[in-house]
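Below is how a single chain appears once it has passed through the pipeline. First comes the sequence as given, then the structure the pipeline wrote out for it. We keep one example in the README because the format questions we get most often are answered faster by looking than by reading.
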Amino acid sequence: MKTIKENISNEIVIKNSRFIALVYRLNNNDITDILKEIKETYPKATHYCYGYSYNEYKKYSDDGEPSGTAGAPIMNVIEKENLNNILIVIVRYFGGIKLGAGGLVRAYTKASTEALKQAEFLELDKGYKILIEFYYSDEKQVNYLLNDYEIIDKKYDEKITYTVLVDDRILEKLHNYNYQVLEELYIEKRNC
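Resulting structure:
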């Protein structure tokens, strides 16, 4: 499984209709905010069709296009490319010429595929968002173990609590500490 390294935009024109592909790497479930921002950026567009896969949860929308002609083709590209933690939005400005169902499927597929040709990809591993609690005396050792991992939050009370993204390998090493798995998700592949 893989994701994109950076967000991408690409535009194609088919029979006077503009198809603007906007591809986002999802780090958290911020899809609603992204869609709102796109609608504000492109307020006069005819359709905002999308597909996304976030931690293997998948959804798509035709946004007023005939059923199955926009969102499903976008999702098919995401699945074919084995992508996760990704959102593809195709903003369409209608050009006055109807494309028909087959033409729409081809157009949304092409818009998605052409945008992804610009992408650099990162491999993903199954990972976990965990809460780990430990004594102050263990902080140096825990920081050493988590050196290559993303610590999302740190709290210092009677004990220290970290919220961190880890993979299977480090989860086993941390087994001696009191940790709680909050969420299973996909994270960048680690080389350690």
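The CA atoms of residues 17 and 94 lie 5 Å apart.

See the next section for the split statistics.
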